[in-house]
Amino acid sequence: MIISSIGQGMLWSMLGLGIFMTYRILGFPDMTTEGSFPLGGAVCVAAITMGVNPFLATLLGVLAGMCAGLVTGLLYTKGKIPVVLAGILVMSALNSVMLFVMKSPNLSLLNLPKIQDVFRPLNLPENYDTVFIGLLAVTIVIGLMSLFFNTEFGQAYIATGDNESMAKSLGIHTERMTNVGLMLSNGLIALSGALISQHDGYADVSKGVGTIVIGLSSIIIGEVLFGELSFFQRMLATVVGSIIYQLLILLVIRLGFDTTYLKFFSAVVLSLCMLIPQFKRALHLTTGFEKYFKKDDVAVSNGKANA
Prior knowledge:
mainly alpha
């Protein structure tokens, strides 16, 4: 169960990294998340049932998520619809899109190929295939994110989140940055949905309920545990936070709590994590991990960097 939770934590960390791009960098509370996550799974599973290669099907799920993010961005930047409402509108619409794609509220992958099958010839112990898939995905995604944020375009994206007015005065197209950010963010979130659906063996239109809480928990647990970090370290901390969150949920299950109320326990875990910084400041406490990490080349310099 612990190995399974670690593997799932890595798969869920794509969700946290996607939310990190909008919520932490742009300060954009994107509610599209709860639609783009199951959309990625729905498109991926539907494609696999039609005979598409699982890797290509996963990519199609990512592209679907990016399209959802672009629609939210256009509603916000061009339509001048408030941030939260734009996300809610797209999230609601995606429910019908998923029903259209899957032709039913859920779709199974029983006896169909999945992305984990690539490790079948290695005869790995149970659940290790999920760990390797998660590790591969995390390495590729964080590598690409690091490259992106070190480009001139990536720095302009960060500057937009730091101070939009100043960014405009420097000639940065802030609306374009917002649209690109939402596309990339929801693409990552859809990637998480596609990988989780293949791990679970099915896609369901209701799978996105509460996912934004899981993503935020991953970010905040990492920040609470490690404190001030460089930009690269913060992405790694989000992955670690996601794994710890899954282990906490496993602990809740092992303690015998009714899993029917798992969403409630998720909300409690997130609430407690968000309260910890207040206690740390009041009592001048550190987690012990913080002294080993210091913020040296932080690319995000705004107040959103801290929980």
